[in-house]
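User: Show me an example of a complex going from sequences to structure tokens.

Assistant: Sure. Here are the input components:
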Amino acid sequence: MGVDVAFWIFAILGVIAAIGVVAVKNLFRAALSLVLCFFTVAGIYGSLSADFMAIAQVLVYMGAISVLIIFAVMLTKDVRSGNPFNRAWPWAFVVCAALMGLLIFVFQDTSWGTIDASQVEAVNTVTEGESTTGAIAGSIFDKDSGFLLPFEISAALILAAVIGAIALVRDK
Amino acid sequence: MDVGLTHYLILSAILFSIGLFGTLSKHNAIGVLMCMEIMLNAVNIAVVAFSRYLVEDTVLLTGHVFALFVIVVAAAEAAVGLAIVITYYRDRETVDVEKADSMKG
């Protein structure tokens, strides 16, 4: 029951924060609203018993990406124009409302099945309520069914992104 | 009402649509990037919810690993994207995406 209450609180707060990101005129306040949205997503992960994901969300999104975005807002501060909508916003609104209606209809109409625990490899599962942190490490670094190559590639990707960002903004 | 997979998927759909609307309807490039982060978060919610509800009373970790890779790519995207925005601002003194039209035919 407590998890259900947590879900509703975080879901409503998250949707309000996301609307705030789009609707607030002041870009800095929109960035703060985005931080609240990230936090509610971390809470949603917590209600899905994904503890490591919740911590990673707080560290990476609330810690790093929000600071990056706030720095960018400060460095390019354009007080006059703020954060307005462009000419095409009514069309965008219609398309996005239609997409949302379609997705909600499909999600409610589909009968989502479950599979038996014997059909998945034991290294990729954790009993409900236990910590997922060590098990995620076991799942990534497993010899047979692991994700070692994507893990190494993501390290190279981060390095390339850091070098690219420095090369882009450095003074010529 | 019991909260189940459908609730998480609908939350994900709502957040994704809000993010898509912001991405399509903003003048400010940083506002567009912020709305893209909302979209990536919405997708991650759906992935983690599937990995929680696919097997009864068990958390499937493949979805968590996938969502972690999405976070990694989102971090790289934010770093490079904001660097591009700052370079563009230095060059043009504006962050309006509609003024970035020098490659328009």
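The lines above are the inputs; the final block is the predicted structure for all two components together. Chain B touches chain A through 76 residues (CB under 8 Å).
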